[in-house]
Each structure stands twice: as structure tokens, then as C-alpha cells.
Amino acid sequence: MTLEQKVGQLIIAGIDGTKFDEKMHQLITNQQVGGLILYKDNFSDLEGSVRLVNELKQGNADNPLPLFMSVDQEGGTVSRLPKDFAALPNAMKVGKTGKPELAEEMGGLLSKELRIMGFNMDFAPVLDVNSNPKNPVIGSRSFGTDAKLVADMGVAAMRGLQAGGTIAVVKHFPGHGDTSVDSHLELPTVPKTVEQLEKLEWIPFRAAIDQGADAVMIAHILFPSIDPDSPSSLSKAVITDLLRDRLGYDGVVITDDMTMGAIARNYGIEEAALQSFLAGSDLILVAHGYDTASQVYDKLLEAAQSGVISEARLDASLRRIISLKQQYKLSDESIPIPIATALPNEEIKQWLSQLQ
Fold first, then answer.
1. CA geometry: angle at 135 spanning 134 and 141, to 5°?
2. At residue 222, what are phi and psi to the nearest 5 degrees?
3. Alpha-carbon gap, residue 118 to 141, rounded angstroms
4. Which residues share a beta bridge with 217?
5. How far apart are CA 356 and CA 354, in angstroms?
6. Considering only CA atoms, which of 108, 218, 115 is closest in space to residue 163?
7. Nearest of 258, 199, 191 to residue 225 by alpha carbon
8. Of 16, 25, 184, 288, catalytic
9. In what order do the strands lie in the sheet with 252-255?
10. What radius of gyration, in Å, describes the C-alpha atoms of the chain?
11. Global pTM?
């Protein structure tokens, strides 16, 4: 791989619109990004959505590695797929059953949905413990207020996704459950120490790592007692010293979206992307703006060319990224347009009946 191709693999980028166009083509061709993320406004009807996914993959045909095709599909309020699919509930409703087997089945159903649509990576499950009732962004997305319950249910959901052939990205390390600020808008500050995080927030993450977590998403939160200068997504103390060294995690680390207000309003996105990579991240999520994705790519490429990013550091991330793509046998082959009867809606309804 060329240096340009290696740097492209570090980025998961967003797109605009519901039809394949020249800007999408340029993003894939010029930046050679490692993956794409789709949001609700990128989906049209079932047929159009799958056609878009297929065309994005076809556009990547000349690049050396297949794309991570990713989406936030948690269930409940964070559901992106077309309305053809029966709705899955939020994690809290599943958590209230106290039955990890139902969470595992939910993960399997999520995976079936995504595979039918041509996706291979899900930014789920949420492993945050909903410990702050004033939390504006986690709430019912969490499996509950008890760390052991969240660990049991979250790891089961992760296993269900994985068994179905979907890369599960657990989130949001080191824990977003005790914030009172939405990091989509501003940078939250949490005064907890490492010892406090160990006793609550990290219980689900430790369990997930022990059970073979594919990827971990890092939150945009400032923990002043750990790193007073950088939010967790840009912090070597959090990503390398704690997640990698203390918790022993050697899988893929991905940032939360770098265009969120927590970063965009307080740091230059390109500089923050570089700082995050140097701190230990493997994948930089740039979910909005073709120009922004291009600027992040240029910044990382310049750093790699000048030696700010060493060849050894770049190759360490490439090893993790390529290993994950190979483990899941990712492919850019087109998938057939699904018919309504192929959707797992009856399975979902049967599963829902067990939640009552």
C-alpha cells in the first residue's frame, strides 16, 4: 500500500444525499477512505438505499481494501434504517427484562437487518451506565443504571452482532453515563478519577474486552483528574495508558464523530484528528462534510510524510484495521435488492412478544 492509501484507511467519512454522485466518488477515489457512515437522511426506500450502498462499494473497487460500511443502529431513538423494518426498542427496555439471552437475540436481529442492507459495522451496543438522571444524550440508550446488568446485557448484544457477522463497536469509553452535557453540542466535563471509573463505568468495558470486543469508540469528554488538557478522544492518558495498557485492549479504537460540537467548537477538527491518532486512535470518524474529511486526510498525510506520524505508528493501526477487515471477510461485492419477505420482521415481532 502507498502512504496515501494507508492514511485513507484511518478515516471513516460521512456522505450527503441518497444517490451516488460525484462528491461521493471523489471521497472514495481521492481520499481512499477506510469506511463510510450513513445517517437517516442517507436512506430512501429499501431498494434505493441498498442500491446506494452497492454503488458506494463499487466505487471502492480500485482501492486495496474493502470499506467499513457503518451505521448507528441501536434500536429505539437511534435507528437509521428505512421504515420497512419492524422497530426494535431501546436498550433500557431490553435491560429491564434482566435476560441477557434477549439482548443477544436483539444483537442477532440488528445484524440481520444490517447484513440485508449491505452494512458490516454497527456503532452499538452502548455500554454506558445510566448513572446520571440528568444525562441528556444517553438515558434509555443504556441498558440500565446497574453496571453489572449493563455488562451482562451489553456483552450479550455484542456477541449477537458478532455471531451474525457484524462488527460491533462498543461505546462510549471511558463512560458517557454520568454527563449532564450533550457532547454533540458542547464538551462535557466529568470530575471522576481512574479509581471511580474502575468501580462503575469500566465494568461493562472490561467485560466486553474480556469477551473479544472488535472495536471501542472513544467519547469526547474531559476528565480533568486524568488529563486536564485534552478530552478523552484526544488523550494519550486515556487511549494508550488506560484503555490499551491498563485494560489490555489491542483492538481497533475509533473516535466519536470529530465534527460534533465538543470538538468542533473547542479545537480545530484537523488538528484534533491528528492529536487523537497520536494519542492511540486507529480510526477517525468524520461524519459530516466532504471538505472536512478531505482536510483531515491532508493533515494526517502531511504528518505521515513529515515524520510526525512515524511509519511504525501508522503500521500499528493498519495492522489492527486490516486484521478486523479480514476477520469479518469484508467484501465490496454488491448484494441483491431485498424483497419485503426477506426482512426479519416476523422474527422481530416474535422476539418483542418476549419483552412483555
1. 130
2. -90, 125
3. 24
4. 254
5. 6
6. 108
7. 191
8. 184
9. 252-255, 215-218, 167-173, 121-122, 68-71, 35-38, 11-14, 284-286
10. 19
11. 0.94
Three cell numbers at 85? 423494518
For residues 172 and 181, the answer to whether their CB atoms sit within 8 Å is no
Q: Give, as one character, the DSSP assignment of residue 63.
A: S
Identified catalytic residue from 72, 128, 178, 256:
256
| Catalytic-residue membership of 21 | no
Query: Which residue is listed with cell 466532504?
Result: 290
The string of pLDDT tens digits covering residues 131-163 is: 877 766 787 899 999 999 999 999 999 999 999
Of 291, 296, 294, give the one whose Cα is nearest residue 268: 296
User: Over the stretch 180-211, which tens digit does the pLDDT of each residue have?
Assistant: 666 676 787 888 999 999 999 999 999 999 99
The CB-side HSE value for 331 (13 A sphere, CA atoms) comes to: 6
CB atoms within 10 A of CB 61: 10
d(CA 47, CA 66): 22
Residue 250 in grid coordinates = 489491542
**Residues 78, 140: contact at Cβ < 8 Å?**
no
Which one-letter DSSP state was computed for residue 342? G
Q: Rounded to an integer, what distance in angstroms lies between the CA atom of residue 329 and that of residue 316? A: 20
220 is catalytic: no
